[in-house]
Amino acid sequence: MNPFSTLTDLADGLRNRQFSSVELTRFYLDRIERLDVEYNSFITVARERAHAQAAAADAKLRTKAATPLTGLPIAHKDIFCTAGVRTSCGSKMLDTFIAPYDATAVARLDAAGAVTLGKTNMDEFAMGSSCETSYYGPVRNPWDPTRVPGGSSGGSAAALAAGLTPAATGTDTGGSIRQPAAFSGVCGLKPTYGCVSRFGMVAFASSLDQGGPMARSVADIALLLDAMAAFDTRDSTSAQTGHDGKAAAAAVAPSRKLRIGLPKEYLQMLTDPALARVFDDARRQFESLGHTLVEVSLPHTAAAVATYYVVASAEASTNLSRFDGVRYGHRCEAPVDLTDLYQRSRSEGFGREVKRRILTGTYALSVGYFDAYYLKAQRVRRLIRDDFVNAFASVDALLTPTTPSTAFPIGQISDPVEMYQQDVFTVPASLAGVPALALPSGFHDGLPVGMQLIGPHFSESRLIGLGADFQRATDWHSRTPPAIG
Amino acid sequence: MGVFWEVNGVAHKTVATAGILGKERMCYGARFTCILMTIHERDIDKLCILARLALGDEERRDARDDLTRIIAMIDSLAAVPTDSIEPLSHPLDATQRLRPDEVTERINRDAFQRIAPAVQDGLYLVPRVIE
Question: What is the pLDDT of chain A when averaged over all its residues?
Fold first, then answer.
């Protein structure tokens, strides 16, 4: 078995009886056991649950009830609640937390027959761009283990890159699916806000959080999205008329010839000449496929990082107030009174970056600053959203770089503001709530380089058609890291 | 909070006045421009009370330094003109969905309390609140 197979190929193997789901699942579980000591991409491996699901899938594969995902292994970011399997969110706060229910995204993939291998490592409470803030230690990039895999869904990205799983889930608040996909040479989709249910996803910034698929090809992303996306009454911001459910069909249909916008502000900020060359090659590839590329302007791009860090921190400080040491999560020893219980439980349970965001958010929401920061950021957010709406009046999609650099060495960035600048190309789409598909566009010095396709709200199938068109003509997404067993 | 103002071109330090970096304000016939804001450890102490966090000395110093840099970064928003722009709280401008007023949740106290740090007879235990 080839650990770097796509879901599409593995599904053929299952249907042709080349291997069973139990054999496939054992194959990946054994690889995790053997290789993940190097990458630290999993926090919890769910061996028993995986075997039970695989056996049930094999029974289903012998009937006509099988779906395209039946029997295929997947790893879930440890932010999605899984009944009976620990959900830590990368934090000491939830080190012993076993959710009493499944997240909707997990339940839908389970119902489609996917087999959960385990839960992947991540920045604590999804707050980070490097997977260095996890309570369970940093994740290492399979392309160069001295480097970060990106974050916060870095465990999912690294597990894919190392061939430890053929599919994964991630969540994206300001780039947390797309940036690790770029750093690790895999594909990831941040769907439209409201497309995938947030129910059972540990909340970080509720007006931005969105779950999505990560995989080795755009066609695989499509299979996962069609299973994950649906209206959910248990998520108050779930979209009632959202995804068209036709992503898998769009991935195999010949792509329409589209008008693709190149935002000039992004290209001005892509200062690394080597990455600019990779981007230019990708742009020319789209042209040679018959698409038309034109320059567009998103004038408020430079304000996006500041806007994002006000909105996200403010919402995080509110969301994380639920961790009080009373109902679940870490509780301090021998509290003397209720205030002591709250303060010490929270101070012991949260790591440094989480505390930093809570304090920033508390500051932005406190008396005298609310208008100047939170309301101001919400006003700028409208301008940023309108930039995209205006651009999509004249183009079908946007093509941009995903990150300003390739994966950086572990421990290199210690200044939080410098780390926040990593998100410069990903936060605008998050603030606008529009979908963005990240896919590999080339390499520089042996490290993957990524690009993203951004479209209007609920244009996931269009982006997938475009991405699949690119991947039929190129093989960047099929490259695998050297020296992996 | 230490806020440094430039008053008619001369720098002054004021105490306990909120300012937004770069923003001009007319006061007593003079033009005030906020030129620098620093966060003190007592500001961190206040935020810690609001956020129910208790930080050690080193953590407080780090938090002060980090927050000073973060706030300088987010203060750049003041330069974006937003007069007559409505705040955006939902990217699709959706409003709260309503549903029929029917009981849909099942009460599952035992399952939820199994993950609680301290319970007794179906109640969550906390330190004594009323003496």
Answer: 97
Q: A121: which residues sit within 8 A by CB, 6+ positions away?
A: A40, A41, A42, A43, A78, A90, A131, A134, A136, A137, A139, A154, A155, A158
Q: In what order do the strands lie in the sheet with A73-77?
A: A42-45, A115-120, A73-77, A167-172, A210-215, A187-190, A436-444, A447-454, A397-401, A259-263, A292-296
Dist. CA A432–CA A436, nearest whole Å: 11
**ipTM for this prediction:** 0.91
- What does A323-357 look like in DSSP terms, one character per residue? --SSSSS---SS-SSHHHHHHHHHHHHS-HHHHHH
Q: Are A296 and A262 in contact (CB under 8 A)?
A: yes
- Which range is least confidently modeled, A236-240, A273-277, A400-404? A236-240
Contacts of A400 (CB under 8 A, 6+ apart): A262, A263, A266, A425, A451, A452, A454
How large is the average pLDDT for residues A253-272?
Answer: 96
Distance CA A171, CA A78 (A): 10
pLDDT tens-digit readout, A321-330: 999 999 999 9
Task: Provide the pLDDT for residue B14.
Answer: 46
Residue A152 annotated among the catalytic residues of the structure = yes
Which positions 85-124 of B are in contact with A (Cβ < 8 Å)? 85-92, 94, 96-97, 99, 108, 111-112, 114-118, 124
Confidence of residue B41 (pLDDT cuts 50, 70, 90): confident
Cβ–Cβ below 8 Å for A337 and B127: yes
